[in-house]
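Example record

The entry below shows one chain as it appears in the dataset: sequence first, then structure tokens.
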Amino acid sequence: MNPKLAIRIGTDFAMFAVLFMLMGYSITGNAIHEWMGIALAVLFGIHISLNFAWVKSITKGRYTAKRTAGTVINVLMFVATIVTIVSAIPISGTVFRFIPAFADGMTMYRLHVLGANWMYVLIAIHLGMQWSRFLNTLLNRQATDRQPTIVWKILCISPIIFAAYGVFALINRGILPKLIMYYSFDMWRGDTSFLMFFVDYISIFILFVAVTHYILILSSKKGTTISDI
């Protein structure tokens, strides 16, 4: 693996780890949450700079259905990230508390929740679209030129188990109402167990990765090659 690719993968892992912990506001508390939010914003900037070649290529080449979907997902991720970052400033109680509120706090709070949850879902969908390529890179092999290894089988099968539980966690955590700003604050509950928080949110993430990945697998049977997935 070349150094640049290693940096890109490392940055992506770091972004996910920080975003994952940001979802656990009731566990980290406000101060840590805000500083981790700044860390995510920095990582987001690094991610954009490392992938700027993709930005410059948007207007070039032919757009297939998959490329169009990928571009839409990336643009939506960018919008969700900007909404999350901007809405965080007027409701900050630690890092940016010196900045006078420039918008209604409740509205900004709801936008912040909306943007953060969409970020989480869209990043999972984005990874799902790249899952086969990611596994090939991670294992330093091509899916079609060797017999599947035990590691490969585990990485392909275990997400199905997590995804099944992810359906329950998605409902239990009230993620869907937060994606459309249709919730009341009495549905919020604090986490008493980091383990349950970890299992729930990892399972939700894997659910969206798996659904996206296997939709592409099914579409491949209608003419798309496995290398395109």
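Notes for this example: The CA atoms of residues 90 and 99 lie 7 Å apart. Residues 224-229 have pLDDT under 50 and may be disordered.
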